[in-house]
Design goal:
This protein is mainly alpha-helical. 75% of the residues lie in helices and 0% in strands.
Length: 300
């Protein structure tokens, strides 16, 4: 039972709602435009969740063997760092997880496109491969992009554009401008979650030579950068609701601006690492709420 708890801790379940935020929006607009498929939705969720778990395990492994996760780290103790799971066991779990992602991705692509869209299928197979690469190379290997301040770009692309536009395409088999602004908003908020994590770990990352955007900017500029990300996402949401207005329900997502506004105030007054850590769950769940209400507002 103790070993099972260690694995569930390594999965970092609190990150999962954030990972599916883009899928929720893509699915809701597929419903809105008459393209929705329940099976494609379920499989898209499973692929996304398995990729997020793969990323979490890879981060645990990569930071663990490099010594980045140490006594200076403020957040929850990682599995490899604690010794409850050995690096060898974690690496085996990564290999199994990659196989699960490959199986689910192929099943999703076949369900979405069948035999009639070979080039689309080929493109999404490549996209799936890039997603696996991005999930693992954030902290793993000598050229890990998370150690070179590139994590923000990857999160914006994969949590924003790939998640929202890609999932919508799986349903509709076409590109549609209606999902562009939502993908930007979700991407910016997701980068905000990463930035919070990096602001929390700024001192320990600096000592471990993990050069994140927060390390490059320093604490005060990172806070300004964070406010820019969250406020910009909120503005993009307002612009979208105005440009694509169909009914009063389109503004339902404004409810999510309540916790986001409180979050902004907390970040302005944040001073120590624990202040940032306490806001991680808040921003992640607020992003999910934003996505859910934005999508539902166009279905009602």
């Amino acid at each position: 039972m103790e070993r099972l708890k260690s694995w569930f801790s390594a999965f970092r379940l609190r990150t999962l709602p954030l990972s599916i935020s883009g899928i929720v929006i893509g699915a809701c607009f597929a419903v809105y435009n008459g393209f929705f498929s329940p099976l494609v939705f379920i499989l898209a969720l499973l692929v996304t969740l398995s990729l997020q778990i793969l990323s979490n395990l890879a981060n645990d492994y990569g930071d663990g063997i490099k010594g980045t996760d140490n006594e200076n780290r403020v957040g929850p103790m990682r599995a490899v760092q604690s010794g409850k799971i050995t690096p060898e066991q974690m690496f085996e779990a990564l290999k199994i997880n990659v196989l699960i992602v490959i199986f689910l991705t192929i099943l999703l692509i076949y369900t979405a496109f069948g035999h009639g869209y070979f080039l689309y299928s080929l493109f999404f197979l490549g996209l799936g491969g890039l997603s696996v690469y991005a999930a693992m190379k954030y902290t793993m290997g000598d050229s890990a992009y998370g150690y070179r301040g590139l994590g923000d770009v990857f999160v914006l692309v994969f949590f924003g554009f790939v998640s929202v536009v890609g999932s919508y395409f799986l349903f509709s088999k076409q590109l549609d401008h209606i999902v562009v602004l939502p993908s930007i908003a979700v991407g910016l908020l997701s980068v905000g979650v990463l930035n919070l994590n990096n602001m929390r770990d700024i001192e320990s990352d600096k000592l471990s030579n993990k050069i994140t955007t927060a390390v490059k900017l320093g604490k005060e500029k990172s806070k300004k950068y964070h406010l820019f990300l969250v406020i910009s996402a909120m503005i993009v949401g307002v612009v979208f609701a105005i440009l694509y207005y169909t009914s009063f329900w389109n503004f339902l997502f404004f409810i999510s601006y309540i916790p986001l506004t409180i979050h902004i105030k907390k970040i302005i007054s944040a001073q120590v690492s624990s202040d940032f850590d306490s806001q991680l769950k808040v921003l992640a769940l607020s992003t999910f709420l934003f996505s859910l209400l934005l999508g539902i507002g166009y279905i009602l």
